[in-house]
Every structure is written in C-alpha cells, then in structure tokens.
C-alpha cells in the first residue's frame, strides 16, 4: 500500500469515527434551525430545505409562535447555580487539595480514600434521601438547594485534581518565597497558586460542566422557575401527547453553547490539566 | 554584625531526637561548613537557622536577636536550595528582584539590584529568560543572585552544588568562594562532600547522628581528627587505620609486626588496644617524595596496585593484612608484587582508642 493510500484510509477511518460521534450533535443543531414538520418527516430529510431562527424566537417569546417556557429564567438559574457551585467547589477543592498535598495529619490516607469513594456512589441513588432531606429543610426547589448538591458532587473531584498539582509544585519554592520575605499566604498566592493554575483551571471547568449538564438530581429537587435549570427545562417541551422537537433542539443548542465556548477558550489549560493529572495518577 | 549562635539546640520528631542539643558560635563574616554523612542532622540544623523547621529546645540567635519564634522572613537571611528553588513562572530578572518587590521597594531600586546581582554573577545575557531555559550552572548562579539581592545578614547554602556535574561543581565552588570574598557575609553551608567543606570553609563543623563531632579549621580537622570517624570522613583518600596493641614503645599488629609509636602520643600503657592511623601522604616510597624532616619508620611493603593520578600515584599495599594507601609524588611505573621501601612520617601518625575511636594524645 502506498503512503497516499494509507493516508486516505486513515482519513476515511477518522471521518467515520467522527461522524458516529458528531452525528447526534449535528442532528440536534440542524433540528434547532428547522420546523417541527421537517424534523418528523419520514424518510428523514438530510439536507435541510428551510433553515430559520424561528425556533429560537419561539422559545424566547419573540416570534409568531410563542412557546410558553421561561427559558430566560432557566438560563439564569443554570448560570447562577453552575457558577456558584463551581466557585465554592474550587475554593474548597483548592484548600483541601493543598492540605492533602502539603501537610501530614492523622487519618489523611483514610480521609482521601473516603473522599474518592464518594465518587463511586451514583448520584441518582441519593435522590430520594436528598428529596426527603431537602423537603424537611425547605431547600427543595431553591437555587441554594441545588448549589449545595452540586458543590458536594464536585468537591471530591476538585480536591483530587488540585492535590496532584500542588504535589508537583516543590515544597522548596514556598520555603524560598518565605525566606524571600513572603508570609505563608503570600507564598501561596505568588508562587504556588500560579504554578498550579492549570490544574485549578481544569478542575473549575470540569466542575462547571458537571453542574451545567447535570439532569438527574436537578429533576428531583427543582420544581419551578425559581430553581429549574436548563437540562430540566428541556422536559417542558414534552406534553402529554406531543413533543416539541424543534423547540427542544433549539434549547439544547443554547445549553451546549456556553460549555463549548468555555472549553475552547481554556483548552490549553484543560489539556495540560488532563495530561498532568494522568502522569501523577 | 551577624553572628549566629546555637545554644543547646534540639530537634525532635515525636519521640526521636534528630539533633541532640548542639552548640555552635559562628562569627561575623565567617564561612562555616556543616558536613557529615546523610542523616547526620546538618540540613535540619540549617533549616532551623532558616526558620523552616521549628526548634524543639534550645535557642538560636542571629546577631543580638533570639530568632526561635521568628518567621523565616523576619530573620533577614537568604538561602540557596539544593534544587535551586527558582520560581519557574518568573524571568531571571523577576526571580532576582522578587524579595525586594515583596518588601515593597521602588521599581528602579529593584531593577538596579537585579542588574547588579546579574553583573556580579555573569547573568546579564539571561535576565529575560525563565529558569527552564537555563543550564544547571546558570540556575545555580540565579539562586545565588537571588540570595545576594536581599543583602542578608546570613547566607545559608543547602548542598547547593550536589546537582551539578564534577567540572561545574569545581567552577561554582570557586565562584562561591569569590562571592564570599566580595560580599563578606556570614555563610553557613551544608554539604556531605568533604572536598567542598575543605576548600570553602573558614571553619568546618563535622556532624554525626545529630551531634557535633568536631569543629575546627580545615587543616585542624585534617591533621588532628578527634576520632576515627573524622579521620576517615575528612580527607581523600580516607585515613589508613590499623588495629594493634601497645607493646614496649611500639604498636604490635595482628601479624606480630610492629609500628613505632607516633611522636605525639598521650599517656598510654602497655597492653592497651589502639588504632594506628596515618594518611596516604605520610606513607611514601623512599626517594619518591620530599625528604622527611621528622622521625620516620622505614618499612618494606609489597605493592598490590598503583593508581596513577598524573602528578602523583596512589599506591595500594598491605600492613598486617589491612589494605592501606600510600602516595608516590614522583610517579614511576610499578608492577604488582614489587617490594618498595616506604617511609612512614611519625610526626603525622595518630593513635586512637580501639574501643571508642577517640584520639589519644594531642
């Protein structure tokens, strides 16, 4: 086989694999821009004939057809909940990760193991106890209720990832900084934090994506526009007898976009974070 | 004035004492080297002076101030670490100026200080590089530059040359010595390399198992080791040691042969078990070294092996079944088994107690 043929085969294989991965996403994006009728046509219409922004207008209540779904509220809830839970998870994760990486204390190994084991429990298994607890405490259907849950989901992961990064920053650097006149706090912010930045950034992105995309738990503990997030809001498009696929796809695109943009913006950190993490184990 | 004094300084980890109440006074501008095998407590001692380790007991003073409870930044010290500990995300210039920036000094002063340090250490072409773009020797110089910029009372060096190759180590050793001559600050330097200790120090402090074994100038510890540990630790090759028993003004060895007593020996008695010590430099084949002015013992010994070093050769031979090394200052080809007449300079021989290893006499 010549080199050229090999190249062609490689590209072909890559194309097929990418097609399998991307097709559902592509279908969602295409469906977001065409009318429900075309989406439901059989056999499927592969090349869209009628592209428009009508579905988006409809869900934002601006077009001729108005879908009665408060997308703006859901969007706001999603942003508030994801950003807040990410910030808290990263702050806790950073402190925890630093402590695990730098200090010796009784029960350290066991504590770390338990933290990691907590990730083995599928979130949905906790939904009923959570529901009951949140009903008792009045956290049901509140942003705070969801933020607490998402923070709890994300903390073990952020601790694990940042611990690995802080462990890679030699202790000598912090000591050198302290000798150079820094307080331990300054040494952390001026020397150790900048060096572990990639890890902290990737921890933040993963935490944000987890919160942004989470559906199972949110569907149990959110009820109204006060707290419903975008993924849960998607279900609003299903009525008793019909599903508004066009509107649902448009909203799915809205959900996908921030995550996609964020990932592109910080992909350098993300890759550094992932490979670093891989090496340390 | 920045004397450093350690009074009964103890470091304890749990129930384990790693430094057992050491006492040491370091004079202003003195270059003191703490040397010893790994685990002897020398680095811990240095880190206690730096404030990076807490003191379990005792007192450390820098200048007039007792610094036991002061944070490292309050002690006005600088430290050069074994792995340089340069800030990888800052340029050489920023590394050099970091301490002044933290101290809130004006920009132009920081720039000038960084420039001065770079000039002294030949780092000017590299000011805008990051540490990752420098060679080992250059990084070492940046680490030293960072230490100079602060104008500290005391410089602390923690095995700063151990990551460099042999050639660079020799070169940096000279630079450190020049630096001391230039800035004249008190230096406490830790190493496990006795050559570094000998070449750099005004005074050597030899440590073992958390104790100070001997303190003295390089020549003192070389010529008058207090025990067999120092005798074998300092000097290359280590001192030759042969066990024997004092018998009628000589030391009777295990094979029945005898070596005359060293000229300077304290009170000893017949039958006392001793260790006889001498350096390779003091066992020379006749006619292959400077004529010995003091008393000598002449012994005929078969050569096991010769190690030519260029200007001199180390001669490996045996006395009473113990392998010993002599030195040939004007080397000539030799062959194994050849018997040579050696002169042992008795002025430079030593007696140690065979049980305790402690030196007998002056």
UniProtKB/TrEMBL annotation, chain A:
Signal peptide: none annotated. GO terms for cellular component: plasma membrane. The keyword Plastid does not apply. The chain crosses the membrane at residues 12-33, 79-100, 112-136, 142-161, 245-266. Keywords: Cell membrane, Membrane, Sugar transport, Transmembrane, Transmembrane helix, Transport. Its main location: membrane. PANTHER family: MALTOSE TRANSPORT SYSTEM PERMEASE-RELATED, MALTOSE_MALTODEXTRIN TRANSPORT SYSTEM PERMEASE PROTEIN MALG. This is Maltose/maltodextrin transport system permease protein MalG. It comes from Paracoccus isoporae.
From TrEMBL, chain B:
GO terms for biological process: carbohydrate transport. SMART domains: AAA (SM00382). GO terms for cellular component: ATP-binding cassette (ABC) transporter complex, substrate-binding subunit-containing. One of its GO terms (molecular function) is ATP binding. Keywords: ATP-binding, Nucleotide-binding, Sugar transport, Transport. InterPro entries: AAA+_ATPase, ABC_transporter-like_ATP-bd, ABC_transporter-like_CS, ABC_transpr_MalK-like, ABC_transpr_MalK/UgpC-like, Mo/tungstate-bd_C_term_dom, NA-bd_OB-fold, OB_MalK-like. Transmembrane segments: none annotated. Residues 4-234 form the ABC transporter domain. Pfam families: ABC_tran, OB_MalK. Belongs to the ABC transporter superfamily. This is Multiple sugar transport system ATP-binding protein. It comes from Paracoccus isoporae.
């Amino acid at each position: 086989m010549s080199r050229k043929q090999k190249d062609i085969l490689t590209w072909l294989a890559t194309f097929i694999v990418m097609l399998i991965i991307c097709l559902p996403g592509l279908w969602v994006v295409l469906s977001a821009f065409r009318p429900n009728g075309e989406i439901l046509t059989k056999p499927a219409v592969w090349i869209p004939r009628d592209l428009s922004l009508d579905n988006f207008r409809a869900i934002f209540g601006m077009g001729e057809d108005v879908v009665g779904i408060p997308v703006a509220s859901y969007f706001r809830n999603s942003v508030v909940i994801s950003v807040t839970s990410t910030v808290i998870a990263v702050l806790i994760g950073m402190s925890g990760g630093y402590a695990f990486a730098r200090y010796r204390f009784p029960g350290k190994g066991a504590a770390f193991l338990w933290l990691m084991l907590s990730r083995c429990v599928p979130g949905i298994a906790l939904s009923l106890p959570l529901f009951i607890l949140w009903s008792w405490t009045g956290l049901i259907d509140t942003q705070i209720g969801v933020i607490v849950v998402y923070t709890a989901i994300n903390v073990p992961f952020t601790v694990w990832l940042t611990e690995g990064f802080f462990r890679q920053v030699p202790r000598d650097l912090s000591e050198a900084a302290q000798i150079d006149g820094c307080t331990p706090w300054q040494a952390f912010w001026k020397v150790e934090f900048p060096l572990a930045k990639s890890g902290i950034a990737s921890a933040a992105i993963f935490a944000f994506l987890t919160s942004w995309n989470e559906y199972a738990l949110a569907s149990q503990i959110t009820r109204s526009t006060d707290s419903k997030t975008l993924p849960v809001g998607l279900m609003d498009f299903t009525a008793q007898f019909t599903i508004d696929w066009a509107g649902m796809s448009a909203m799915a695109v809205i959900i996908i976009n921030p995550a996609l943009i964020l990932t592109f913006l910080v992909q350098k950190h993300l890759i550094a974070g992932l490979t670093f993490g891989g090496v340390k184990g | 004035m920045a004397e450093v004094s350690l009074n009964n300084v103890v470091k304890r980890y749990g129930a384990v004492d790693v430094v057992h109440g050491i006492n040491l006074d370091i004079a202003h501008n003195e270059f003191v080297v703490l040397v010893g095998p790994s685990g002897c407590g020398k680095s811990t001692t240095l880190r206690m002076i730096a404030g990076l380790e807490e003191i379990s007991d005792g007192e450390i003073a820098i200048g007039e101030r007792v610094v036991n409870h002061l944070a490292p930044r309050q002690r006005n010290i600088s430290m050069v670490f074994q792995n340089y500990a340069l800030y990888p995300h800052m340029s050489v210039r920023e590394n050099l100026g970091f301490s002044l920036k933290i101290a809130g000094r004006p920009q132009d002063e920081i720039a000038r200080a960084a420039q001065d340090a770079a000039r002294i250490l030949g780092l000017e072409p590299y000011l805008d590089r990051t540490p990752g773009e420098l060679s080992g020797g250059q990084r070492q110089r940046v680490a030293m530059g960072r230490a100079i910029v602060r104008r500290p009372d005391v410089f602390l060096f923690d095995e700063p040359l151990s990551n460099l190759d042999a050639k660079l180590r020799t070169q940096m050793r000279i630079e450190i010595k020049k630096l001391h001559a230039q800035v004249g600050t008190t230096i406490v330097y830790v190493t496990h390399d006795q050559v570094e200790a000998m070449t750099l120090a005004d005074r050597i402090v030899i440590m073992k198992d958390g104790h100070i074994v001997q303190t003295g100038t390089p020549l003192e510890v070389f010529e008058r080791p207090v025990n067999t540990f120092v005798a074998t630790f300092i000097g290359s090759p280590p001192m030759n040691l042969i066990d024997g028993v004092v018998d009628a003004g000589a030391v009777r060895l295990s094979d029945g042969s005898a070596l005359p007593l060293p000229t300077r020996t304290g009170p000893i008695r017949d039958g006392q078990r001793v260790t006889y010590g001498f350096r390779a430099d003091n066992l020379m084949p006749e006619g292959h070294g400077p004529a010995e002015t003091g008393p000598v013992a002449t012994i005929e010994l078969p050569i096991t092996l010769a190690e030519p070093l260029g200007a001199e050769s180390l001669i490996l031979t045996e006395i009473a079944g113990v392998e010993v090394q002599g030195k040939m200052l004007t080397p000539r080809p030799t062959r194994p088994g050849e018997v040579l007449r050696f002169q042992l300079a008795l002025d430079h021989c030593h007696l140690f107690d065979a049980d305790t290893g402690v030196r007998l006499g002056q």
